[in-house]
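Folding Problem: From Residues to Backbone Shape
Fields: amino acid sequence; protein backbone structure tokens
RECORD BEGINS BELOW THIS LINE
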Amino acid sequence: MRLALLFGSLTLAFLLAVWTTQAPKPRPADAPAVAFSAARAMTDIEQIARAPHPVGSPEHARVRAYLNDRLTQLGLQVSEQAGPLSPAAVKRLERAGGDPGAANNQAINLIGVLPGKDRSQPAVMLMAHYDTVVGSPGAADDSAGVAAILEAVRAIQARGPAERDLVVLLTDAEELGLDGARVFFGGHPLRDRIGAVVNLEARGGGGRAAMFETGREAGPTVQLFRRAAAKADGGTTATSIAAFMYERMPNGTDFTVPKDRGIGGLNLAFIGRPDQYHAANATPANLDRGAVQHLGSQALEAADALLRAPSLPAKGENLVYADVFGRWVIAHAQGTGWILLALAAALGGFAAWRARRGAGLTAGQVGLGVLDGLWFLTGGVILLQATRLLAGPMSNRAASPDVYYTLLRRLPWMEAGAALAALALALVLLSGARRARPRVIGGAFALLTAVVLIVGGFSPVMLALGVVAVGLSLWPGQAERSAWGGWLGLIATVFVFGCALQGAAPEAALLFVWPVLLAAAAAALAALIDPGLTRPVSLLPGAVATLLGGAWLLGIGHFVFLGVGMDLPGALALVALLVLLFARPLAPGAGATRLMLLAAAACLIAGVGLNLSAQLLAPSPEVAEALP
């Protein structure tokens, strides 16, 4: 029964996660005038992305003339703004094989203004860049963003006059260092009238579009967006975790420039099909129409809500927020996290009290559950880092962009390989083999740690994690195994992590706070049904939590891996630990140990195979040219 519930709930969680990470169906060309249509946007994309159009190229001039005509046809007041390329941009273009002299070392922005009913109010800006890197048609990056803006402007006009001005900024030289955005916000007369910005980007060729960044102190803006995004096709993908992480990353988009000037707004992008990023195959034919629909529909609803609001959102405390299965967004104040943690502690305490009275739960059993969680987390990081190395050298975008783009092409196989490796380790934990064969497990992690340090380069963090993983593998287990001990031990571990992160970074703490609350609620309900966890019905709360919580976490894990999976594959170990938070009570008895280990071995072999074969499935450009 437990085995069937375990594999059944995990399978359903995976299927639900896959469903929630799909882009919506693109709307046809005959969609209602007030709606966004990917088919209509594709007409522009096919013209814009006919060929690569880096700064200074003849195609660049052709695209600019085309966009000038399109903005004029839409009834906007159109102008151009030229500004000097920075010395760094000139060098970057020269290194890529472009000719900055052909553009007179200038970036040329296109600006369109659609007047609103009250022109004294702050304006709303829709922004995307129209230049590409050398060698890529840029159907996604950022022709999709530009075309989505044109289609959104058409739909906004079909909905009737707005309260305030809409400013369209199609920037130049974004690929060379955000020069076009700096030129506009550095001196254009309209810059001080901009009250909110919606920026559109892409890193790849498809997938759901995420709202991954906001302005600072953006609580009211998020509240407006969550209401607007509910009207968008396919809902939205958005978490305060992404905004928190992106704020601390060295990456930048055009949105970085107004954000640093204190202007609020939203940044939207899709990052699926990463093999198309800055690549020759980023053509209109290869572009995911559903991604265009999702990006444009969200941009339309967000911009329309801003344009028609009585006043633009003021600055306010950042909120904790996340989408649920991509369909709606839950948001709350940062301090609410402490209330949710207190509720989780009360529910977990109730479950422990019932289990102590009904099943003889001891503190030692809970302690072993805590060690299980720490072992899985540290060992998972080491295992995933080791399997990741099979896909190729660790990337360093600044020092080796070729390695970076090569690994992007391998990312889908790397993600599948990492997920299988994490599942293999989870099955080892659930089988109880960690305590039955401590020397074998400890030796395996010692070897994996050596591989990571030798092949991937010495890292004191990896060394420390490896030592802990080996030590916990060899730790003597004196207390008897207990389903309650393992479950409540994991809940206690994640609860401590949640408290620490709630104190340090509440916007990111939801990754621990929400799952631990769901797990504690499931544990309390199970304890109420049967403190001994022997009746099949008492396992249903854990199975349902695994299905719902697991699907939500797998969806988040997918976007995390696409974002940082090349350099931080161990991030999936944390997601896998949180899924185990729900699935732990479903661990089968000793009679299923052999079957679980065979399944773990199969998953690990498949995961290693996928990471290793990624080099053949997505070779480097040099290798690809040599293939018959």
Remarks:
- The CA atoms of residues 186 and 257 lie 9 Å apart.
- Confidence is low (pLDDT under 50) at residues 623-628.
- The longest strand covers residues 106-114.
- Residues 401-431 form the longest helix (31 residues).
